[in-house]
Specification:
alpha/beta; Immunoglobulin-like; eight-stranded parallel β-sheet; 22 helices; 26 strands; globular; binds alpha-D-glucopyranose
């Protein structure tokens, strides 16, 4: 270990500030002349040699020479931190965030994130800007594709498990790296679902719904945190002392590193809270943002701010020590390449074990939304038609794809060719030139093909380029003529099923009635096509559940399952209009598909739910036992979900909140009991005085999925 205090003591103020600067690899001048920010900002070679971290280098053949030169050039020989967005895989990609959350299988996500860390570490990456745990309630927002869904508890579990998987027991190990939780906070609450838009939520709502997942990652030991672009209740997160000091440091005890989002410090000027870069540097630094990503506010003004007495040098020292400690804990002073090894990476990337894991993840996250029995298809089909823009599409892995490539990715067609080598496979794009315009000229050919086939798989959805950063949409229906294609093809051949790819919940209302089966794959990763073949032909029984609500109409957004009742809830069937209650003239309140929903090829009967007591004291607990039976003909997995409702409290409470879950596997005819233990801390909520309390009274437990419960029973908390 390095004596970082002695190292700090020998550093000049300029060198300390250098540790707070993050630039791109092109700025470090190893490959060619210096380009990028360092050139634009006019940095000298000496100033470049002081820089503390770099983002964007993804190959050992770059990180190794960069590190070697940097250590040589820096007077203090301090190694660089290499940071990158390893979100759902590095070269072998597993499904995107909401899909993985919908597996309801934290152990699976742990294995996948460990694989990502193993692969990324061979490239010399030390920190991943992941997990992203922003609460996602509005599918108009393109970044829902990175999240862990709309539920605070599910996102907390899935965020924390990624931190532990990326970091392992020791971040200096060559197959682990440091994790950065983002984007703190409430970035997913952007007004109107428009990326970067302001977020206005009460402190109570912030604490109740938006903050828990970040806190779970802090409690899991995350080493880095990234504040969000948005302003929160009028103050940009990057300069928000309530968030970064009061909550993050004072309440949660976080003492790790914080890194701004790309350009977010300079953007304080555009947001109108800083007159100029100097004020932006002052506000961001004093709020607790230690590293500036890709803009020159710190580079240009921090030394000046210290010299003029606006910022004490001790504050700079404290920030630098956090960064030096991270570098030391990574072992970089003794082992600056941290296991970077191009050959090791090339041997590991896409290896059979990694592909097998990616395939298993795609299988476990697929959600069967509808099925009248048309799926699974028989393997005896002689002629199968694959129709639609995703029949041969290899871009089914999401936009945070790191070093993942389309050519590595198994398309639906390739997956089915492998599954049924003897079958004749007919393909039709079905959507004219491109499925995002209204050209219906391809439908006629698709219909003719459908008529010839024994079975038809419609492969539809939204381009992966339609979700991700800066990709909000006002219309979240299927792009282009796909709905017409579905109607025409399903009319031409009844033995038709749909496989659907998207990075966000789409409004599928206009194809629902004409579809016999809908298998939702999200963006399924490198092995997506093989998983579709496994699932469609029944080698794998779907077991994924929705981690985000699918609205019936975009006008319902934001729409989340953990809603409160209002004083005038509807009391008639949802499709009926009811006057003077909380409803719409032209649409029901209910979604098309619900949080926690997902079908199987078998049937599960919930036989009983029993509570061991109906009264609980503060130091007591209620043990809930749920008995589930597989009453179908196939083995299958079921995510048993337990929901809670606080019937009466000092503030309105949701009609249902996920409080526990367990995924079980059952053979045909097999029954299993799942036991959950509910204790008083799980009954706490943020009250109107922003206190985290539980209140005596009745609580109801329900088992099933949102708005669809098999059993409910109540107990009282006695205080
Ligand atoms: C982007 C994203 C952030 C990412 C960072 C570095 O703007 O907002 O999630 O980690 O820049 O790529």
């Amino acid at each position: 270990m390095k004596d970082i205090h002695a190292l700090l003591a020998q550093m000049t103020l300029e060198e300390k500030v250098g540790q707070l600067i993050q630039i791109s690899p092109s700025s470090l001048g190893v490959f060619a002349e210096i380009t990028g920010p360092a050139q634009e900002w006019g940095m000298t070679l000496e100033e470049i040699s002081r820089v503390g971290s770099c983002l964007g280098a993804t190959q050992a053949k770059h990180t190794i020479p960069l590190q070697r030169k940097h250590i040589e050039d820096d007077r203090n020989h301090i190694p660089l931190l290499f940071m990158y967005d390893v979100i759902h895989g590095f070269r072998t990609l597993y499904p995107i965030g909401p899909a993985m959350a919908g597996s309801f299988d934290p152990a699976l996500l742990y294995e996948c994130a460990e694989m990502a860390a193993r692969e990324a570490a061979t490239a010399g990456i030390h920190v991943t800007f992941s997990p992203m745990v922003d609460l996602a309630r509005d599918p108009r927002w393109g970044r829902v594709m990175e999240t862990c869904g709309e539920d605070p508890y599910l996102a907390s579990v899935m965020g924390a498990v990624q931190v532990k998987a990326f970091q392992g027991e020791d971040i200096s190990a060559h197959d682990h790296l440091a994790s950065c939780v983002k984007h703190f906070a409430a970035y997913g609450g952007a007004e109107a679902g428009r990326d970067y838009n302001p977020v206005e939520v009460s402190e109570r709502t912030l604490r109740q719904f938006y903050l828990p997942a970040y806190k779970a990652c802090v409690d899991a030991g995350v080493r880095v945190l990234m504040p969000s672009f948005n302003d929160l209740n009028g103050v940009p997160s990057t300069a928000n002392t309530f968030l970064m000091k009061q909550i993050l440091e004072q309440e949660w005890g976080y003492c790790g590193v914080t890194v701004s989002d790309w350009g977010a410090i300079a953007e304080l000027c555009k947001q109108g809270v800083a007159e100029d870069l100097k004020e932006a540097a002052y506000k961001a630094f004093t709020a607790g943002c230690q590293i500036e990503m890709m803009t020159p506010a710190y580079y240009r003004h921090l030394v000046e701010l210290v010299r003029e007495g606006s910022i004490p040098e001790s504050a700079i020292d404290e920030a630098v020590l956090r960064i030096l400690k991270l570098k030391d804990d990574l072992g970089l002073f003794e082992d600056p390449f941290h296991g970077a090894d191009e050959a090791k990476g090339e041997a590991m990337f896409l290896c059979p074990e990694h592909r097998a894991l990616a395939r298993r993840a795609a299988n476990e996250t697929a959600v069967l939304l509808k099925n009248d029995g048309v799926l699974p298809f028989s393997k005896d089909v002689k002629k199968i038609a694959l129709i639609g823009p995703f029949a041969e599409e290899q871009k089914i892995f999401g936009t945070w794809n790191a070093r993942g490539k389309a050519e590595d990715t198994v398309s639906v067609r390739e997956g089915i060719e492998r599954k049924l080598p003897g079958a004749e496979i007919l393909c039709a794009y079905g959507c004219g030139n491109h499925y995002t315009d209204t050209d219906t000229s391809g439908i006629a050919e698709a219909v003719e093909l459908a008529k010839q086939a024994d079975a038809v798989l419609l492969c539809i959805g939204e381009p992966q380029s339609y979700t991700g950063e800066g990709k909000s949409r006002t219309d979240i229906t299927l792009p282009g003529p796909q709905a017409e294609l579905v109607k025409a093809v399903t009319a031409a051949n009844p033995n038709t099923a749909i496989v659907h790819f998207s990075g966000r919940p789409l409004v599928l209302t206009n194809i629902y009635d004409s579809s016999r089966a809908i298998l939702h794959m999200w963006m399924a990763g490198t092995e997506g096509g093989n998983a579709v073949a496994d699932l469609v032909f029944g080698d794998v029984n779907p077991s994924g559940k929705l981690s985000m609500t699918f609205p019936r109409a975009v006008g319902q957004c934001p729409l989340n399952y953990n809603y409160t009742n209002t004083g005038r809830p509807k009391t008639v069937p949802d499709e009926e209009f009811q006057n003077y209650v909380s409803s719409y003239l032209d649409c029901g309140n209910r979604p098309l598909f619900y949080f926690g929903e997902g079908l199987s090829y078998t049937t599960f009967t919930y036989e009983s739910m029993t509570l061991d007591t109906h009264e609980m004291t503060e130091d007591g607990c209620v043990t809930v036992t749920v008995r589930v039976k597989n009453t179908g003909e196939r083995a299958g997995k079921e995510a048993v979900q337990l929901y809670l409702r606080d019937m009466v409290a000092s503030a309105v409470r949701p009609v249902q909140e996920l409080v526990a879950f367990e995924k079980i596997e059952l053979a045909p005819g097999e029954s299993k009991e799942v036991t959950f233990r509910i204790t008083e801390p799980q009954l706490r909520f943020w009250n109107a005085q922003n206190q985290f309390v539980s209140e005596a009274g009745e609580f109801r437990l329900m088992v099933g999925y949102a708005d669809h419960f098999h059993f409910a029973d109540s107990f009282r908390l006695i205080k």
